[in-house]
Write the structure tokens for this entry.
Amino acid sequence: MVSHRTITVVTTYLEIPARAAFRPSFTADPEIAVLESRVPFPAFYRFLYQAVGANYHWTLRLGWTDDQLATYLAQPGVTLLVLYVCGTPAGYVELNAHSDEPGVEIAYFGLVPMFHGRGLGKHLLSVGVQRAYDDGAERIWVHTCTLDGPYALANYQARGFVPYKTTTEPLILPE
């Protein structure tokens, strides 16, 4: 019999209401590049999703078929920006202009664990926010929760995001 445990998850919703509030932090390291995946294919997307999200219980998109992923990723309002370190995929930021709220949502954002602690998240988030504004966003929003990395909330706030809503809900996890 599989046992389960229930935890409480606090989700914080944040926004940058205007470009003037954006506080970017870029790196000049020539070994770091962020490239748009303009022809994203499902296997590569799944690789990124699992490599970044496995430790944070990211499971929603794992059940999507190849056709569902390809259709989603091909939408004009979806942008997939991949961070590379010395040519190796190290993380990604996914922008969605067709989200549940006004503005552009940072739908997914994160780094592969072996690249944590190097300040790369500041750079990747800054590139994503700048791209959203360059593409015409008036508002950018994101949500993070207590299951995410311990520095996620601080990174968002350091870039100029401000909280506007918090939710609390139970989550059942297998042990």
Residues 4-174 form a domain with the Aminopeptidase fold (CATH 3.40.630.30). The longest helix spans residues 120-134. The helical segments are 42-53, 66-73, 120-134, 152-158. The longest strand covers residues 4-16.
